[in-house]
Amino acid sequence: MWIRFANGTLKHLTPENVGLKNDLYIFEENGVETDKVEVFFGEHIENDFARLSRRIREEAGRFSQMSGDEAGVLVRFVASQAVRTLGNKAAMSEQANGAPIDANTFVRVMVRQMKMLLDYWTQNLPTIRFSTPLPNIGETFITGDHPVMVQLINDNQIWEPISRPEQGITNLTDILQHPKHVFMVALSPYVCVFVVRGEPGEVHLPPTTLDLRDVREFNNLIRQQCDIFTLARDRSSLE
Predict the structure, then answer these.
(1) How far apart are CA 191 and CA 140, in angstroms?
(2) pLDDT digits (tens, 9 = 90+) for 154-172
(3) 58: Cβ–Cβ under 8 A, 6 or more apart, which residues?
(4) Any residues with CB less than 8 A from the CB of 217 and at least 6 apart, and which?
(5) Cα distances (Å, whole numbers) of residue 209 to 46, 60, 132, 213, 217
(6) Sequence-ordered alpha helix ranges (H) in the chain
(7) Whole-structure pTM over 0.85, yes or no?
(8) Is residue 202 predicted with pLDDT exceeding 90?
(9) What is the CB neighbour count within 10 angstroms for residue 20?
């Protein structure tokens, strides 16, 4: 696995040695440090998703079936990935006018945001779409320290030939109330999932083939929002 740090340095590392942040979710409860949030992630999100993730990686473009329980596992994973990152902690700090965010505040807000996402998707079943660059292998998906890309889609009455994405920090409530939004995350170098506010409760499989220009655009947006590093299978995807 290749890693690109924010200073431009490229290194070839094993997945086990890519990145580590100690005690990110450790907080104090009644004056005592607890890791129960980390335990929750492991028992109720990561373990279940690991089995689904293994199948997605192995089947890649042949990934064509997913049960209702697996859809729930996937949605919980996307919700957690959207909020449990150092990037989200930095966004909280920016919204607090640059004030440092302590662990208790980060964990409290993170859990509230994840619950808000899951409650919304439970009451408004989202469309789940999968895409792949296969059979073309000239571009593959990358990920990073803030791996979920959220887009708000604005349809103008006047047609514009070029849509120019604008980056910014938006409150989660505003995102969920937006008439068209999508949460995107790469599940493997060859499969990306889109959780869309749209046609309720539908899962679209097998993955549709994306134009490689769209894969490059996704990768470019991921690179721009990562504060520390981005990851890829090959060096060229990071340059």
Answers:
(1) 9
(2) 766 666 666 666 777 788 9
(3) none
(4) none
(5) 27, 11, 5, 12, 15
(6) 36-41, 47-59, 68-83, 86-95, 103-123, 172-177, 212-225
(7) yes
(8) no
(9) 7
